[in-house]
Amino acid sequence: MTRMYVDAWDPSYGSSFEGGGEDGPASPSSAQVDTDVEVPAAEWAPIDAPPGRSAPDVVLLVDGVRRNDAGLWTQEEDGTSYAGLAASFAAGVVRCDLARGSAELVDARVGRGLFTASPSAGDVQAGSVRYQVHRVSGTGEASKLPAAVQPSLTALEIDISGMARDDREDLLVVDGPLRNRRHLPRTIGYVKTQQKQYLPAALTAVVTALRPGQRTPVFHLGTVWGGWSWYLRLPGGSGAPWSGIVRVECSPDLTPEQAIELAELSGVTLPRFASSAYKDPRAPQNLVPIAGLERRLRGMLGDARVLHRALTLAAARNRT
Fold this sequence. Notes:
Layout: E1 32-34, E2 58-75, E3 81-97, E4 102-116, E5 124-126, E6 129-135, H1 145-148, H2 150-164, E7 171-175, E8 187-191, H3 201-208, E9 219-222, E10 228-233, E11 245-250, H4 256-269, H5 288-300, H6 304-319
Parallel strand pairs: 2-7, 4-6, 7-8
Antiparallel strand pairs: 1-9, 2-3, 3-4, 5-6, 8-11, 9-10, 10-11
């Protein structure tokens, strides 16, 4: 009889895995994967946290949020027109002192931008808020402008991550893939939504066999932003094969031994931050400090309706 599970995530957030139903992510990745990094593929099995391994005293978690405030169009002197996107974004860092049992927001900043391919557009002053122009390359189709916001958000995350660190033994957890943040020391990327199938079926079975707190062996992804990676199951899932599964990654510039050390560290650190279904619609993958940080950052973005009206008035003034 086929067993069915309800994904613990609120459906308004999508799914913790995309496209694959009970068997997890269905879309296969074209990346070359080396699964013989930590142990030979034939010997893959769930790995427990090693005895005696403890979490670092200080864990920093960084995340960012973004919001599209308004779509705009320019009218150039030669009669051409370009799409524009006014967007707000914010990034912050939560410092968790595990030795003291405390957590605090140590830095949070907001950025605003007008993203467009228009050669003539300038900054937009919308009431007390200024949207700095970011000129995008190409023709600047409206559908591609939301993606143009991400580099500015990532740059903000990198900046505040460096400013917040004062402990040589800390661990920095980036919510999402590392991408161009892989140069940050003692840093792991935390991917809570599984969209690609990286492993062959025989090794995927090891992923779905993980118990809470267990991880897979480290493997290597040969993608543009490739690096060392592994899967980990958090406590509090529904019992479905992919429930509570996250993929963790670290910089390809590290040695295999350094990557394995970070994998062991993640296994004793991340599960303690897992969220509960009655508190978070994306439990257990949406870590508790990240959830609180996201709420704080979204509040810092301001009232979307007020900003939209201010942008509308600014555009009207620009036409007169």
